[in-house]
């Protein structure tokens, strides 16, 4: 869920970029994009932390 949310939030920033030039959106859109970037970063960091935790606590065995 964290990976999906981070991806959607990150894509939202890019999708909104063409609309920054519209006069009625020019004041509001940068703050929305900033929040989406922060949400995306937090969710990707959460995903990374979950994966690292799962790797550390698992009993990985290197055979060879």
Describe this structure in words.
- It is rod-shaped, with a radius of gyration of 18 Å.
- The model has no long low-confidence stretch (mean pLDDT 93).
- It has helices spanning 2-16, 29-57.
- The chain is built from two helices and no strands.
- Helix 1 runs antiparallel to helix 2.
- The chain has one domain.
- The two termini are 35 Å apart.
- It is an all-alpha fold.
- 69% of the residues lie in helices and 0% in strands.
- Rg, rounded, reads 18 Å
Number of domains: 1
> Helix share of residues?
55-70%
Mean pLDDT across all amino acids: 93
Summarize the biggest pleated sheet: none
Shape summary: rod-shaped
Range of strand content: under 5%
Keywords:
mainly alpha, 64 residues
Topology, please?
Layout: H1 2-16, H2 29-57
Short description:
With 64 residues, the protein is mainly alpha-helical. The protein has helices at residues 2-16, 29-57. The protein has one domain.
């Amino acid at each position: 869920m964290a990976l999906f949310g981070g991806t959607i939030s990150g894509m939202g920033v890019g999708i909104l970029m063409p609309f920054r030039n519209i006069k009625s959106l020019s004041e509001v859109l940068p703050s929305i994009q900033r929040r989406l970037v922060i949400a995306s970063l937090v969710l990707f960091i959460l995903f990374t932390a979950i994966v690292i935790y799962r790797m550390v606590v698992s009993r990985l065995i290197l055979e060879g």
